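User: Can you help me understand a structure? I only have the sequence.
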Amino acid sequence: MHRSWRTPIFLVLAAGAALTWSAMIRPVSSISEHIPGVRPGDLAPDFTLVTLAGDSVTLSELRGHPILVNVWASWCTPCKYEMPAIQKVYEELKDQGLVVLAVNLTKKDDLAAVSTFVQELSLTFPVLLDVDGQVEEAYQLRGLPSSFFIDGDGIIQSVVIGGPMSEDVVRAGVEKLLDE
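Assistant: Let's start by predicting it. Here is the structure, written out as tokens:
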């Protein structure tokens, strides 16, 4: 009776070992190679947007600074949960040159809701309005929130799609930029 269960278990273990061995000898392409969008190592696509305060901000004019571009919407729950972490890290590291640009997908949002969101969370970094979807298109966004950690040369060092990012994740991404 005991032999009847040994054969299926042996077959499952043998199949698992064979799959593991074949994966080790044959390179597996990364799924991210087949998904559109910007990646680490790419030059960050440039954009010029207007802030909630009415000022114009051009990404390329901020070269020389470590930059966190966070794309969000007021209706996005993970966006709301990660903003306090971004705000806290920004307050602690802005004197070291950190720039945070919170790009709102205004094309898919409501301006009044954006203003309320910013006030409720007491955000002090620039909030940019992507009214026509230029950032969404240039960065080929795949989800919200999306965060791009950009070094002083304008090169994307890391990308985080989805969230919410914890304070530790935000800090680690920013500190890597500051160390360069």
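Now, to help you interpret it: The domain at 33-179 is CATH 3.40.30.10 (Glutaredoxin). Residues 15-32 have pLDDT under 50 and may be disordered. Let me know which part you'd like to focus on.
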